[in-house]
Amino acid sequence: MTAISGEFPTSQLNRLPASPYYLEAVVTALKKAGLLRTYYRDRLRGYRLGAKAKLVLLDGWPERFTFCLTGDAETNRLKSEANRRFRLHRLAETYITMGNAGVLLYPDEKPKVFAQTGFGGEAVTYPVFYSSREVKELGADATQIRSSRFAGVLLVPTGIFVTYNSGGALMKWRYKSELRVKTLLWNILCQQRLAQQYRVEQVHGLVLGDSMDLAYQILTSTGGAKHDYFMLDGSYDHFYFLTNDHQGEVILALLCDPVKTAELDRILSQGLSAGNPGRAMEQDAAEPDGTPVLFGYFCDLPRIVRFNTALELMERPGTLICFDFQADVLRRYCGDRVHLQTIDFTKFEGRLFP
C-alpha cells in the first residue's frame, strides 16, 4: 500500500485488515530491516519505502510496481511540500477504502483501460479502481484534466464512479475542470474502449469523507464567497457520499454489488407499493397511504435534495430510508417534513455481508 500511495499516513495503519498488534509488529520489523521509514514534517506523519524496499518490490513484482516506483512518478520521487504529501495521504485513504471493499487496485490485477497501449477490449467484470495518475496515462487526451481534484475512477460492472476524497472539510472545486473529467470518461469509456458496457448516463460522482458531518456541509454548501468550494452544482445527477471507515467500506461493497443491492431493495419494499414513475418527484416506493418513499442508504446527495425539494414544493410529507448512522445528518437537513426510517447497520452487515 505504501508503494502505490507514495507515502502512507500513520493514522491509517489501523484500517488495514489485520490486528493492531500484528500491524505494529510488521512495521517495527520493516523499519529494523531498513525497508520502511517514518517521515514527519508540517504535522504530517507517514511511512515511506526505503531504497532497499523499492528494489525488492521491483525485482519480485515488476508488473505490479514499475508504474509507481520508477521514473518521475510522484509516488517514486517524493517531495517534502505539505500540499503534495497531503494529496498522497488522501490517495492512500482512498486506496484503503477501496481495497477493504474488495475493489482491485494493482495494475497487474485489472484491465489496462487507460493505458496508451495494451488494452485488449476486456469488459469490467469485477470492481476496479484507477488512480488519477493512471487515468492521465492516456497522454495527450488527459491534458485537459490536469487541474481536477479527482482521486481516481471506480469501475464496476454496472457503472462508472468519478471518485473524490474530501477528508474532513469541503474541498476546492472548479466546475469546468471537473466537467472535463466527466467528458473525458464519456469519450474514452462510453464511446470508445468500453462502449459495449457503459452508457453516458452511467457516469456518476462519488465523494469520500471522514464523517457524516461533511455530508451535511455538502448538502448546504453554496460554494463559499468565491464559489470555489465543493457544492452540488449539477455536475453529476448522482453524487454518492461514503465515509472513510468500516461503514463506508461495507456500503461501497454494496454499491459494487447489484445483486445484494436488489436484495436489500426487495427487503425494504415489503409492505410498500411500487413508486409512481409518472409523479413529478423521485421515489422508490410508496406507503399504503400514498406517501412517497426514497431509499437513501447510498447517500446519493443530489437525489436526496431533489426528493426533499419536491416535498417542500408539494407541501406533503415523505419517508426516507437510510442507515442508522446516517440519520442524524439527514434529519437535520430534511427537517420535520421527512420521516426517517433507519436500517440497523450491524444487522444489515450480518445478513448481507456475513
Summary tags:
single chain, 354 residues, alpha/beta, Arc Repressor Mutant, subunit A, 3 domains, 5-stranded mixed beta sheet
Can you offer a commentary on this structure?
This protein is α/β, with parallel strands linked by helices and 354 residues long. The chain has three domains: 1-86, Arc Repressor Mutant, subunit A (Orthogonal Bundle), CATH 1.10.10; 101-255, no CATH class; 260-352, no CATH class. Helices cover 39% and strands 18% of the residues. It is built from 13 helices and 13 strands. The strands form three sheets. The chain has a five-stranded mixed sheet. A five-stranded mixed sheet has the order 9-10-11-12-13. Strands 1-3-2 form a three-stranded antiparallel sheet. Strand 11 (292-295), helix 11 and strand 12 (318-323) form a beta-alpha-beta unit. The longest helix has 19 residues, at 82-100. The protein is globular. The chain starts with a helix and ends with a helix. The mean pLDDT is 95.
